[in-house]
Write a structure and sequence with these properties.
Layout (H helix, E strand, L loop, with lengths): L1 E17 L2 E15 L2 E8 L1 E2 L4 E2 L1 H16 L6 H8 L4 H19 L3 H4 L11 E4 L4 H14 L4 E5 L6 H22 L4 E5 L6 H13 L4 E3 L8 H12 L5 E4 L6 H7 L5 E4 L1 H4 L2 H13 L3 E4 L6 H8 L7 E2 L12 E2 L2 E3 L2 E3 L9 E2 L3
Helix pairs in contact: 5-6
The structure holds magnesium ion.
Length: about 350
Amino acid sequence: MRCRLSRFPLTKAVPLAISRGTTAAVEHLLLELEHDGITGRGETGGFDTGHRAYRTDDLAAELEAVLPALESVAPEPFQALEPLLETLSPPARCAVDLALHDWWGQRLGQPLWRVWGLDDGAIVPTSVTLGLGSEAAVLERLERWWQQLPASRIKLKLGSPEGLDHDRALVRAVAQALERRQQSHGVAGELQVDANGGWTLEQARSMLGWLDAEGVALVEQPLAPLEDPEADCAAFAALELDCPMALVADESCWNLADLVRLAPYVDGVNIKLLKSGGLAEALLMARAAGRLGLGVMLGCYSDSALLNGAAAQLLPLVRWPDLDSHLNLVDDPFSGPALEGDRLRPGTAPGLGVLHARG
Ligand SMILES: [Mg+2]
């Protein structure tokens, strides 16, 4: 197959601040695989979970190095390429995995969710993200989301460097805004919070009961992820009994092995394609989560409609969709999942169902 790697900028309409810092713009990579007149596309880009970080430049170098091997083989059967994929870091593998899935779906003439037999009628509303900031800035961001979509599910970032008082003030302000919205529009809002590992054990313990009393439905990654798997599990285990709402692992859960390891201590996991290394692992994770009684959150980094269109193929398996990054871009070169009310729907076009502006 013919391979092409290029770079493209992604600029946020509203910069996003979380406990680890603020992102206004990123550069991502587009991998195109062409064979038999079909072009499959995949995306990757750098990201940081606190304990592991990948830079876009390093991912470009990693992919450049594997292009000759890819060019010497055909894109099917997928299984024959697995040994090659296993040599790559998760985000580099994601680009290749997505391009192969896109090619494969187009070859079959179907979107992947349909190939997998999933029910698009099972898709539930996506959440939209409110980053850290002053109370006024966070409420202004919420109003801006409401101009774009119904946004009945809100994910509020916590773990503010300004401390727990600021976190509490943000929760109170957003909970009150949701209550006002319910009175004026008759729509009950769901408030989720994501500390992005920004709390200590003591802080998390003091917050969980309080958050529950404020009506928060879910808390994501209260404590920093740890490289040692046993210590990482122990951190979730230490919170499990104190946590009256759904406890979800994000930065700690990259792949199926992490999911199985964390399953006894959490209510759900946040699957992201850049962590899992693409759709093959993500589908396994989503299926296994269902069997183990865990809820699936499906999240994103600063990703375009290509990565989110790929993730959207899994939406029928997801309890907490959180694919909003492409809704906050001013220069997305792709169009993918369509928004119907506050539900995202995977494209109906074959493969990933994503269109490139270049055609
Ligand atoms: Mg998260």
